[in-house]
Amino acid sequence: MSGGPPVRAEASWPEPGDGAPPPVPGFVHSDFSPLVAAVAERCLSRAYGQRPAPDGGRTAVVLVTADGDRDSAAHVRRTVAAGGRPGPLFFFQSVPNSVAGHVAARWGLGGPVVCLAPTGDPRRDGAAEADLLLHDGDADAVLLVLIEQAPDDGGARDRARAVAVLLGGGDRP
């Protein structure tokens, strides 16, 4: 991200040796939220070592996803179409900022939580939002998380990918 805020740490999921992301209490059925939590944990651990983030009080979270939690949405659609009732956790986890808030709470991040559906390149759109938060003084650092689940084609479960980047911190010009 040349010309933007400095990159303090970066992580991906999967990286070599990764299996499924660990489950997250309160999130069911889909790997969307566990994947967001796992990649954020990896990135923040690389920057800080352990929780909580010592400078997290003004760290924002920006979650960028074009389609959100596709697996949960498809499950709810099938359940309703068959005359069933989705469980209450599906209502909670259907909002992507639920998992962003979970990450913020675990790491003591007290800045804004923003979820974006990109209109162009997801990384560029997310970096622009992060730069705006930093420039306007709403945050001193931004955890940018980009995630997409591929359409369910009946194939392997490793079809979701995520990247987390910790931006900013330190002195700004």
From TrEMBL:
Q: Where is this region: Disordered?
A: 1-26
**Where exactly are the transmembrane stretches of this chain?**
none
Task: State the InterPro entries in the record.
Answer: Ketoacyl_synth_N, Thiolase-like
Q: Which GO terms describe its molecular function?
A: acyltransferase activity
Task: Please name the Pfam families in this protein's record.
Answer: Ketoacyl-synt_2
Where is the Beta-ketoacyl synthase-like N-terminal domain positioned along the sequence?
56-152
Q: What is this protein called?
A: Beta-ketoacyl synthase-like N-terminal domain-containing protein
